[in-house]
UniProtKB/TrEMBL annotation:
Origin species: Exilibacterium tricleocarpae
UniProt xrefs under Pfam families: HTH_18
Alphabetical list of SMART domains matching this protein: HTH_ARAC
Ranges where the HTH araC/xylS-type domain occurs: 195-293
Protein known as: Helix-turn-helix transcriptional regulator
Entry annotated with the keyword Transcription: yes
InterPro entries associated with the record: AraC_XylS_family_regulators (IPR050204), Homeodomain-like_sf (IPR009057), HTH_AraC (IPR018060), HTH_AraC-typ_CS (IPR018062)
One example GO MF annotation: sequence-specific DNA binding
The keyword Metal-binding belongs to this UniProt entry's keyword annotation: no
Length: 296
């Protein structure tokens, strides 16, 4: 097993699927890599690698089967949202009988282990049970996977916190599917910790902020920090930072002379379009309309 070789490498090199149309995106503190690839029918052995992958088919009525080393799982017709999990260090044979579009999200083993163990002790080993599943069809998995893909393109560095939250949602949901319940938290962030985070965000809301940076401020691992922060504030780190950016944007928009593109840049949004999307989603209006109604 080559730990430096990933499934993304396999799907991109000339010996695997180098001829296929593909796009790769990366982001977040968990080093998540996403690959969207258009593929013809194929039968290949995927090598054991050092990353954990969640693959989701986006095409209709595609015959598929796979073998993790014990037996072939009989042909199933894959539909949009059909999901297969491939744990680290496990080779798998795939036999796919038609053209199809695949969305693959991968994460290094060490990151997934830490995330699982912060959820419940020994839970990472339980993920092996997913190899006995046929296709997994789950709304949470599908929407989270597709959301990760879109935000990595649209929002640039502003997407890091959101990618972290979505990847934690995916792993948490997979653990729920094998009946793992989260362990109760014995530690919560103190008021001093919360103030430290708040002060940092106040000073740096216009810059790239990721979960690893915030976790480092209070001496916690990324996975533990994200969990403790949500329990202490009822918000994810992404939501916390986003609220600050919206607040600052509202202040700048109180000025008639403020240009929307400048406001977006000064408040840490990836673009004017990103700012507009967030205003519509969170405030039910556009930045331009908000400025028109409130500016003096």
């Amino acid at each position: 097993m080559n730990e430096s070789y990933s499934l993304v490498d396999f799907y991109c090199n000339q010996n695997g699927h180098g001829h296929c149309q593909k796009e790769i995106r990366r982001g977040g503190s968990f080093d998540v890599t996403c690959l969207l690839v258009e593929m013809p029918a194929y039968r290949k052995s995927v090598p054991a690698v050092g990353d954990f992958s969640v693959g989701m088919g986006l095409s209709t009525n595609v015959p598929a089967r796979w073998n993790y080393g014990e037996k072939w799982i009989n042909h199933k017709l894959a539909q949009p949202g059909s999901t297969v999990v491939t744990p680290c260090n496990l080779a798998v044979d795939f036999d796919v009988g038609g053209d199809h579009l695949l969305l693959l999200c991968t994460c290094p083993e060490v990151k997934v282990v830490a995330l699982c163990e912060s959820y419940a002790e020994g839970s990472y080993r339980k993920l092996m049970q997913l190899t006995s599943f046929s296709f997994i069809y789950d709304h949470v998995l599908r929407t989270s996977m597709q959301r990760i893909w879109h935000v990595t393109k649209e929002y640039g560095f502003s997407s890091d916190l959101l990618i972290d939250g979505l990847w934690m949602t995916i792993i948490g949901r997979l653990l729920e599917l094998v009946n793992i319940k989260p362990k109760p938290s014995r530690h919560k962030l103190s008021s001093v910790h919360i103030k430290t985070i708040g002060d940092y965000v106040e000073e740096n809301y216009h810059q790239s902020i990721n979960t690893a940076t915030l976790a480092g401020l209070v001496g916690m691992s990324v996975s533990r920090f994200a969990k403790e922060f949500r329990q202490s504030t009822s918000k994810t780190p992404y939501q916390f930072v986003l609220e600050k950016r919206i607040e600052k944007a509202q202040l700048f928009l109180c000025q008639k002379s403020a240009k929307l593109c400048d406001v977006a840049y000064r408040c840490g949004f990836a673009s004017q379009t990103h700012l507009s999307d967030i205003f519509r989603e969170k405030l039910g209006t556009t930045p331009k309309q908000y400025q028109k109604e409130i500016a003096i």
